[in-house]
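Lest this sound abstract, we think one record worth quoting, the chain in one-letter code, the fold tokenised, each line plainly labelled:

>
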Amino acid sequence: MIIEFSDNLITGNSTIDTQHKELIERIAAFVNACEDGDGKMKAIKMLDYLAEYTEFHFSEEEKLQQEVSYPGYNEHKAKHEEFKKTVEALHEFLEESEGPTAAFVEQVKKQVVDWLFKHIEGFDRSVAEYINYVNNPNRL
């Protein structure tokens, strides 16, 4: 699976898109470290790095939503919380295991990569469109 930012992930909001690019690069680095068998400590370090940026990105995205009184804010925030719990569970798994296994990498691809891409294409694109509408009310 190729994990990279592509045109179908562009929301049209430069702040969100720039952060998504960084987030996807971090996810790709984490998955690569797991697939390359770099070991438990490197995988944990990469997951910590991913979790840190995820926290920053979600906070920034939620701020943007609050600034424009985005009507789907509560649902969107709940999705972010769900994702953070997934990352915590992956972290616990790594802490308790000998290191990232092939099954672990598959779970990361399903629970992190697939989730994030669907989230960007649906929820985040809707936020960007709403922000654009609020900032350009006379534009059709």
User: Anything to note?
Assistant: The longest helix spans residues 102-135.
